[in-house]
Amino acid sequence: MATLGGLERSVMSLLWDGGESLSANDVRDRLGEDLAVTTVLTVLSRLERKDMVRRERSTRPHRYTAVASREEHTVEMLNEVLGTAGDREAVLARFIGGIPDSEAAALRRLLQK
Amino acid sequence: MATLGGLERSVMSLLWDGGESLSANDVRDRLGEDLAVTTVLTVLSRLERKDMVRRERSTRPHRYTAVASREEHTVEMLNEVLGTAGDREAVLARFIGGIPDSEAAALRRLLQK
DNA sequence: CACCATTACTACAGCGTGTAGAAATCGACG
DNA sequence: CGTCGATTTCTACACGCTGTAGTAATGGTG
């Protein structure tokens, strides 16, 4: 269900890559785009509502962190997509048919264990 | 790119499951929801614009077919999601860590060959 | 308590989707 | 060939989501 808009996605990227918690001002500064802080705050609130972001309210500039890592989130998306799949195995078969050999090898390794 | 709304998705489901081409009236009849044909036509046109549906214009009730099978489409979605992943292999690792054993086995088989 | 930084609330435009009426079109039948 | 009914196109509008920000409230610090 978590369809993000462009700005929302940019903000999530910062939180994911930055590693740690950021204030609204931090976020605004790191986005190159010269936005009002209120804009960033709005976006952060919406991301909080979508459970993508957790907010530390006890500090004065509130600090925001991503609820899940980028990889965790991506896996969630994958599962969401697969949930609509009908025949999961058919999809996976087709999927691995199209991935580069290096990744196929990596998968084989991961599955062997 | 292909984010579908609820009705759009229902229509695609019909086209996918029905197997063959349907007219707008066919679609309207199969949706339980008592919609105007024009509504269905609008949705079909939008799906055509999104390249989800092909339309046979030469017959009088135009006939509509899904451009890709449900599985093909799902694979496209998967790749789209993976495209935003950052570290694809990390995501895949996490992903296969969470799938049921039966599917893991199936994957192993598929990768072996 | 007053002031500045921060946050909350409110607003609005633009776009996608669901929904459908009115107008145009097309083929068949007389 | 003209008419009529079915089909398609065009136009419209409401609603929700996103980007964007102003204004009002709030909270700590001197």
From TrEMBL, chains A, B:
A single GO molecular function, which one? DNA binding
What transmembrane ranges does the database entry give? Answer: none
**Keyword DNA-binding recorded:** yes
- Keyword RNA-binding in the entry? The reply is no
Q: Which UniProt keywords apply?
A: DNA-binding, Transcription, Transcription regulation
Q: List this protein's GO terms for biological process.
A: negative regulation of DNA-templated transcription
Give the family, as the similarity comment puts it. Belongs to the BlaI transcriptional regulatory family.
Q: Indicate what this protein is called per its UniProt record.
A: Putative transcriptional regulator
Q: Highest lineage ranks of the organism?
A: Bacteria, Bacillati, Actinomycetota, Actinomycetes, Micrococcales
